[in-house]
Fold this sequence. Notes:
This protein has 90 residues and is of the alpha+beta class. 34% of the residues lie in helices and 30% in strands.
Amino acid sequence: MVRKSFKITNETGIHARPATTLVNCCMNFDSNITLQALKNEVDFKSIMGVMSLGIYSGTIIEVKCDGVDENEAMEAIAQKIIALGLGKEI
């Protein structure tokens, strides 16, 4: 299992459009991928789960990947979060 934490710096947090982009990225991998924020954990392959967290600017999130392609999945997700201007790794 690999895990990384990020601080969301985008002033609108993770809203529908970037959440969809991140979920679609996660769907490309076989690993189990979870997103933890605000004391809740959801499947990162579920748009409803991600949106239910209500992630706003300043929130610390943790992404966990567990499976055969966990390292590749984590790298892709980290790159997406940064490329979309959502946050930075901490």
